[in-house]
Specification:
The complex is a heterodimer of chains A (159) and B (796). Chain A has 159 residues and is α+β, with helices and mostly antiparallel strands. In chain A, 35% of the residues lie in helices and 17% in strands. Chain B starts with 17 loop residues before the first helix and ends with a helix. Classes of the chains: A alpha+beta (159), B alpha+beta (796). The structure holds FE2/S2 (inorganic) cluster (2 copies).
Chain lengths: 159, 796
């Protein structure tokens, strides 16, 4: 029998009390609890599809142990629409055609959200750097960067 | 050219992507069925070894359900059934019966309540190996007389075929008289080119979920580009009636050709579910996936003859491809490579010889272009070499010889050909040259400094679908059911797959345009094989042209029904009625042409048809396109070569595409840019290398060691210009052709040509890595300094 230990965390504003398996990654824990929006593209920390926000920071959930999330707040792409900054990014991705197959999209959005929360006036070159840990095989990234930049610009204007 | 005003075609909506930003989109690995077991796969550590016995009794004692070679049907099949049966080579079973043929080949499988338990059980499986052979990794060693046969015999259709020298199949084609053509030439150039195996790296790994049904049938959710072929294959393999296999269409997390065939894990999952009598879920790890498929490599020996004025007179093209341990589609591949080659330029006299060879490596399959980027690299490099020999501008040479309007295009090898009716080649070369400031181009000799900039051009194309006036060797048709609901909203039920490139958006716009229904009122959903008619696959850049063409045909039939029925309400003749979109009402309206104010909305008419029990305004049909129009592309690429580090960057690119009418402008551009990034990977970075001794992947199944372009390898955003040609394809839905695979075809060639222009070194082998650049640069410097010393001495 696999060892399990109790764990308590908040996911998209909802408290989850459960058990995690020894050595279980946060990605596997989340998917086991029905958060299928968090995607596993490599489970080795190389692709970024599994990115979620943990206490305000974008992390790769496949190389984070579930236990490390104990007591923390997790935001996945499903929770994005609850916040204005998240909604804006979602809309911008759709409008800019920044999505093709969509498998990288959740991770991209989470990386972008955490980045824009911290950096208010990024230029496109900085945005490119910020998302360089997230692979996308479909789009060639141009429209993703444009979508993120459009939100950054709008945020600035509304200030 | 026909000019048309459209209500929906050519406008961007893209609302069908909402599920992808809200996390609600369901991919095959996200499907979960109550009571499901989790499956894992045991893969071979050896490249070529005899299987004596697979003993899983210990694993089953732990409560796992297991399947080994002895449990799977004897039925030999090919995973890809797009070609007609007589031209389909069959060499595999669900699990190998006698021996493994590559490292990572699935050998046995276990399912248990959790993945951890399944993995623990898998460790208990004992494999008794017999003879082991040294892996045949290269083409040359595989063809040697003493080389161990990877397959003794296979089937071609129903015919048993003996395999000699591991040659899986060959294809030879002749047009005109090559010998005479070369005699007429003033200049002959000949070179050998090679392109590597690369890995698709679609972000979603291949997955399957299977539920055994009470009636003895199965329901499966799979990663697939065509659900009906999966249905037919599973029915054949497991001897199930074809209506008892229901394959669900789920969203694809990228594929690029890797799921044209039914994926090897699909029948493994089904076999487990049938034995367990419970739902089973199988999600490939990245390592599993890397050992599942790769892009066809190609070696090309190309010889071309031309007159002084640049008129081509003959070409001799010989190609070799090593295909790995199983033949997924090498025969049509060789045919297609011939077709791409034959359709690029007016060779007049040509000879083509193609050989596909088994090796002990991962089986190869289509990846965006089906041989097109591979052969394009050879042809477009050689055109530049020829231009230099002739003292011509590379663009001028291309303009003189390209195959264009009124000429024949081989859309899918020699048996599927049609006449080109729309062509933007000239416009793209001429306009592109202006945008890229081609006239400012300097020669390699005129450049200096550590960092050298160069510009290159290459052109390419791909077919739109695999239809010709005669059906040929490829199965190609699509279909749909379209119905108008009681409120005037419309449902489109089609098995047509969307890889994310916008096929569905296009199909919905086509229906909206025909029925004049607002785009948002057209629904197109994930359906299954039971509720749809056949669609062959979204491959061969056929989604919009063939799938969209079929959808348009069915929509027009529904329109006919609608007008006939409306005529009874208006007490008028159908031909006197007009259908248009009233954007203010957000409804399609119908009215007698003379009195538009007497309109009825589509909703009112549909509701009336309902309450009078007239019936549903609906139609179902399939359609085969009878042409395969090429969509053309032209790449102008600038490179910067750092001669100290060998690094190459792309400061600027101008890309022009010819897709006829463009249905989804933003996604069209997105496809071109996406293909450009994959093309850069192909040209500069990617290769799945093998260790020669054991036949294992050097990256060990991890993408940590398999680099693809990130944002940092792409040109700066503002320096990537995409433009479209002004064409209209008369045989396409609203004038449309494809784009997908065309977009990749000439990226590698343009990059290689630009590198030559920058540093005066011609590369014949992709990828052009910094190490190769550096090595070649040092050699060149050494040679030049030798020459300088020589020249100095001559002065004395
Ligand atoms: S799945 Fe976490 S980085 Fe790839
Ligand atoms: S949209 Fe497919 S991987 Fe990014």
């Amino acid at each position: 029998m696999m060892e399990e230990y109790p764990i308590e965390l908040t996911i998209n504003g909802e408290k989850i009390v459960s058990t995690a398996k020894a050595e279980e990654s946060l990605l596997r824990f989340l998917r086991r609890h029905g958060f299928y929006e968090v995607k596993g593209g490599c489970e080795k920390g190389d692709c970024g599809t599994c990115t979620v926000i943990m206490n305000g920071k974008a992390i790769k959930s496949c190389i984070t142990l579930a236990g490390q999330a104990n007591g923390k707040e997790i935001l996945t792409v499903r929770g994005l629409e609850k916040e204005e900054s998240g909604r804006k990014l979602q809309e911008s991705f759709v409008q800019h055609g920044a999505i093709q197959c969509g498998f990288c999209t959740a991770g991209m959005l989470m990386t972008a959200k955490a980045y824009l929360d911290e950096n208010h006036q990024p230029n496109k070159v900085e945005i490119r750097k910020a998302i360089s840990g997230n692979l996308c095989r479909c789009t060639g990234y141009k429209k993703i960067v444009e979508a993120i930049y459009a939100v950054a610009e709008e945020n600035q204007k509304s200030k | 050219m026909e000019k048309q005003q459209f209500d929906f075609v050519g406008k961007d909506f893209a609302i069908k992507n909402v599920g992808k930003v809200t996390g609600k989109e369901v991919y095959s690995g996200d499907v979960s069925i109550p009571g499901q077991l989790y499956a894992v796969v045991l893969r071979s550590p050896y490249a070529h070894a005899e299987i004596k016995k697979v003993d899983y009794s210990e694993a089953e004692k732990m409560g796992a359900i297991c399947i080994g070679p002895e449990d799977v049907p004897d039925y030999l099949y090919n995973e890809r059934i797009v070609s007609i049966p007589d031209k389909t080579y069959r060499d595999r079973t669900v699990l190998p019966k006698d021996k493994v043929r590559h490292v990572g080949e699935a050998l046995a499988t276990c399912a248990a309540e959790t993945e951890e338990e399944a993995l623990a059980a898998l460790k208990k499986i004992k494999v008794e190996w017999g003879r082991k052979w040294k892996p045949l990794v290269t083409l040359e060693e595989a063809m040697e007389d003493e080389a161990p046969p990877i397959h003794d015999y296979v089937y071609l259709g129903e015919e048993k075929v003996k395999i000699k020298n591991n040659i899986a199949c060959t294809r030879d084609i002749e047009v005109g008289d090559m010998e005479r053509g070369f005699e007429e030439a003033d200049t002959v150039v000949e070179r050998t080119f090679s392109t590597p195996r690369i890995y698709h790296l679609q972000m979603e790994t291949k997955s399957a979920v299977c539920v055994p049904e009470a009636d003895g049938g199965i329901t499966v959710w799979v990663t697939s580009q065509g659900i009906h072929n999966v249905r037919i294959l599973l029915g054949n393999i497991f001897n199930l009636p074809l209506n008892k296999v229901n394959v669900k269409r789920v969203t694809l997390g990228g594929s690029f050709g890797s799921s044209i065939q039914m994926n090897s894990i699909t029948p493994i999952c089904v076999a487990l579910a049938l034995k367990a009598k419970r739902p089973v879920k199988l999600v490939s790890t990245r390592e599993d996936d890397l050992y599942d498929h790769a892009k066809y490599p190609l070696i090309t020996k190309l010889k071309v003859g031309a007159k002084k004025d640049g008129t081509l007179t003959a070409a001799h093209c010989r190609v070799w491809v090593e295909i790995g341990g199983h033949n997924i589609q090498a025969y049509p591949y060789l045919g297609c490579v011939a077709g791409w080659f034959a359709s690029l330029y007016r060779w007049k006299n040509l000879k083509y010889e193609g050989k596909a060879v088994y090796t002990n490596k991962v089986p190869t399959c289509a990846m965006q272009g089906y041989g097109n980027p591979q052969i394009n690299f050879a042809v477009e490099s050689l055109m530049d070499i020829l231009a230099e020999e002739l003292g011509m501008d590379p663009i001028e040479l291309r303009l003189k010889n390209y195959v264009g309007k009124g000429e024949e295009f081989w859309g899918q090898g020699p048996t599927v050909r049609s006449i080109i009716r729309s062509c933007g080649v000239e416009e793209m070369l001429v306009e592109g040259a202006k945008l890229a400031e081609w006239e400012k181009r300097t020669l390699p000799l005129e450049k200096e400094g550590e960092i050298r900039r160069g510009i290159g051009v290459a052109r390419g194309f791909h077919t739109s679908g695999t239809g010709g006036p005669n059906p040929g060797e490829t199965i190609d048709y699509s279909g749909a059911t379209i119905k108008i609901n009681e409120d005037g909203s419309v449902d489109v039920l089609t098995a047509l797959m969307d890889h994310g490139g916008g096929t569905w958006e296009a199909a919905a716009k086509i229906v909206a345009e025909v029925l004049k229904v607002p785009y948002e009122k057209v629904g197109i959903y994930n359906v299954d094989t039971r509720t749809t008619v056949f669609d062959v696959n979204t491959h061969a850049t056929r989604g919009v042209y063939c799938g969209g063409g079929a959808v348009k045909y069915v929509a027009e039939k529904v329109k006919e029904l609608l007008l006939n029925y409306a005529a009874t309400l208006f007490k008028d003749l159908p031909e006197n009625l007009e259908l248009s979109c009233n954007h203010e009402l957000g409804q399609a309206v119908i009215y007698p042409r003379e009195i538009p104010e007497n309109y009825k909305t589509l909703g009112e008419i549909a509701e009336y048809a309902h309450i009078t029990s007239w019936g549903t305004l609906a139609y179902t049909a399939t359609l085969r396109q009878k042409n395969c129009p090429p969509c053309f592309i032209t790449h102008f690429v600038e490179v910067e070569v750092n001669t100290r580090t060998g690094e190459i960057s792309i400061p600027r690119a101008v890309i022009l595409g010819d897709s006829g009418t463009i249905l989804n402008p933003a996604l069209w551009e997105g496809q071109i840019i996406g293909a450009f990034s994959r093309g850069l990977g192909f040209a500069l970075l990617e290769e799945t290398k093998y260790d020669l001794k054991e036949g294992k992947l050097e990256c060990k199944g991890m993408i940590t060691d398999y680099k693809i372009p990130t944002t940092l390898e792409m040109p700066k955003l503002d320096n990537l210009l995409v433009r479209s040609a002004h064409t209209y394809e008369p045989t396409g839905p609203f004038g449309a052709k494809g784009i997908g695979e065309a977009a990749l075809s000439s990226v590698g060639s343009a990059v290689a040509n630009a590198i030559y222009n920058a540093i005066g070194i011609r590369f014949y082998e992709l990828p052009i890595t910094p190490e190769k650049v550096l090595k070649a640069w040092k050699e060149k410097e050494r040679e030049e300094s030798q020459e300088r010393v020589g020249d100095k001495l001559n002065e004395y």
